[in-house]
Amino acid sequence: MAGQKRHYLITGAAGLVGPALAERLLEDPDNVVFLTDLVKPSVPAGAKHPENVRLLEADLCDTDAMKGVVAAALPLTAAFVFHGIMSGASEANPALAMKVNVDAVRSLLLHLAEVQRGVRVVFSSSNAVYGPPLPDVVTEATTPTPTGVYGSCKYMMEILVNDLTRRGEIDAFSVRFPTISVRPGKPAPAASAFLSGVIREPMNGLPCALPLTDRGFKATLCSPRVAIENLLRVVAWPSDKLPPHQRAVNFPGIIASVQELLDALAKVGGEDKLKLVRDEPNAAYEALLRSWAWSLDYSKPLALGLVRDKDAEGLVREYVATLKK
């Protein structure tokens, strides 16, 4: 029906992905977006219809607070579950990671199933679910064997998503993000944060420390723009896009080495920016980074209609363009 409002809930909405996704959703005057996080989120700066934003400050680890957020957003068109403790912080505090990344997510999913059976959910997972021993090329058929707290938590919730969807309790997909680069804002407490910082900090006149000295180290990256586009595509998928008990999909990324990022930085930002990059080895972070899967075959997600970036230089140019706005 024309003019009928569609309600979208985004948790962890004070981070990178939430505001950018909300901005895209708010291009449509019939979309109402509920943003929630531990700290009160802000209305996205570029929101076309800011009157359709609802800002909810809540600790989703608190059951009553979580239920209050869900009640405010009902009836839901979809929920995007983005809240969580990131990889580096998860290793530093496994108990907190379990509380936020498992207990709070589980509680939210079960409550959504209770109050709106069959609701569409998009759960943010990660390539960190993969770990050694890894095949030469990783696909969705590769069995996850995470070696970090963060990846383990994500995989546990993927299994719950599969089971709840199989039973018809929710209609969900788990999207495994590659490393998003270039992230705007401050460095995140993640082992992979330098993959944004190596561009972002020098372009803002700030130093960046690399946790490993290997310039040949390769990572799988995607831009914020491509991540948001793929989220919008997944949330609109019909339920039978994937089997009811296999709901995870790898978001496509490009493979780039640290040296390729540095070359792109020099080409786009100038050779002088390289002087701001220094080595600061972190053995724990390097071990975590090297345990993750960085060589993935994206035939399946691309065949399903998802998209990816072109190259490392494109990631840098996209970020630099945001600085000029």
TrEMBL record:
Entries under SUPFAM superfamilies matching the protein: NAD(P)-binding Rossmann-fold domains
Q: Which residues form the NAD-dependent epimerase/dehydratase domain?
A: 9-208
Read off the Pfam families from this record.
Epimerase
Which keywords appear in this protein's UniProt record, sorted alphabetically?
Carbohydrate metabolism, NADP
For whether the record's keyword set contains NADP, the answer is yes
InterPro entries for the chain: Epimerase_deHydtase, NAD(P)-bd_dom_sf
- Keyword Transferase attached: no
PANTHER family named among the record's database cross-references: ADP-L-GLYCERO-D-MANNO-HEPTOSE-6-EPIMERASE, NUCLEOSIDE-DIPHOSPHATE-SUGAR EPIMERASE
What is the official name of this protein in its record? Answer: NAD-dependent epimerase/dehydratase domain-containing protein
